[in-house]
């Protein structure tokens, strides 16, 4: 059972990558049956969709020219997919949008990603800087592929179901560095990693809600 973590940030060691590492590490620790893999989209040459619509019927003509097929193979092989993304103008960065657009063939080819588990982890610079819109966008991408969206389940009173980290702290001029601890999103991203590992390995049933 494979859990594929995709870092959609152009930065390999930024805040999004930190959340992704949290989730993947705990998934790896929790279940030996779950194997985890991380890729950074920035390492792959993924061209823009040209809107030719060939993918309605056949493979994308760009597949022979860039690295997207290697990413697609990993998507197909995974039982669960995690996308980590920064917030860029309340949306995803261009490299992640190119990946999203190129995934259309998988949808048109009779829903090849159907029933895979999906979750997203998002970072933003500013508090209320649009990160929730990014989660909405990514979750809608997963829904359009027929994937099963998994949120965090933790303390129902104090913990959110969406792992979002924000660099801006309480004060206007107070920012954390991408690698700095963020108690809330660190906890929530770990919960997500654990939950995905349990779900993909069939161990989730009977698992008591955490306190
Ligand atoms: C082009 C660009 C646009 C950005 N737009 C926003 C934004 O709309 N809202 C926000 O809160 N932060 C914005 N940021 C800040 C990033 O979301 C923030 O630094 C994020 O944590 C970077 O994630 P990373 O370290 O994983 O790359 C933007 C950054 C860049 C480079």
Write a concise synopsis of the structure shown:
This protein is of the alpha/beta class and 211 residues long. Helices cover 34% and strands 15% of the residues.
Describe the structure.
This protein has six helices and six strands, in the order βαβαβααβαββα. The chain is an alpha/beta fold. It has one domain (2-200): Rossmann fold (3-Layer(aba) Sandwich), CATH 3.40.50.360. Helix 1 (15-30) crosses helix 6. The structure holds flavin mononucleotide. The site of flavin mononucleotide has 19 residues, from helix 1 and strand 4.
Percent in helix: 25-40%
How many separate helices?
6
Gross CATH architecture: 3-Layer(aba) Sandwich
Order of helices and strands: EHEHEHHEHEEH
Average residue-wise pLDDT? 95
Structural class: alpha/beta
Ligands in the model, by name, code or SMILES, are: flavin mononucleotide
User: Strand tally, please?
Assistant: 6
N→C terminal distance: 27 Å
* Main β-sheet description: 6 strands, parallel
CATH topology assignment: Rossmann fold
How much of the sequence lies in strands comes to 15-25%
Determine Rg (CA atoms, Å): 17 Å
Domain count, please report it. 1
CATH class: Alpha Beta
Shape: globular
Low-confidence stretches: none
CATH superfamily: Flavodoxin domain
């Amino acid at each position: 059972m494979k859990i594929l973590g995709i870092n959609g940030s152009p930065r390999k060691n930024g805040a999004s990558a930190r959340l992704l590492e949290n989730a993947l590490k705990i998934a790896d620790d929790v279940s030996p049956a779950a194997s985890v893999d991380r890729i950074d989209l920035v390492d792959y040459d993924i061209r823009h969709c040209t809107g030719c619509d060939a993918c309605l019927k056949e493979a994308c003509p760009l597949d022979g020219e860039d690295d997207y097929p290697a990413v697609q193979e990993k998507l197909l092989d995974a039982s669960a997919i995690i996308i980590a993304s920064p917030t860029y103008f309340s949306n995803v960065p261009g490299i992640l949008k190119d990946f999203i657009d190129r995934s259309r063939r998988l949808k048109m080819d009779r829903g090849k990603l159907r029933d895979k588990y999906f979750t997203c982890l998002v970072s933003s610079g500013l508090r209320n800087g649009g990160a929730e819109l990014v989660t909405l966008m990514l979750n809608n991408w997963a829904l359009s592929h027929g994937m099963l969206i998994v949120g965090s389940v933790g303390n129902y009173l104090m913990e959110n179901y969406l792992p979002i980290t924000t660099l801006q702290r309480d004060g206007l001029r107070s920012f954390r560095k991408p690698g700095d601890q963020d108690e809330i999103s660190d906890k929530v991203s770990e919960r997500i990693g654990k939950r995905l590992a349990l779900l993909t390995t069939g161990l989730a049933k009977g698992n008591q809600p955490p306190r």
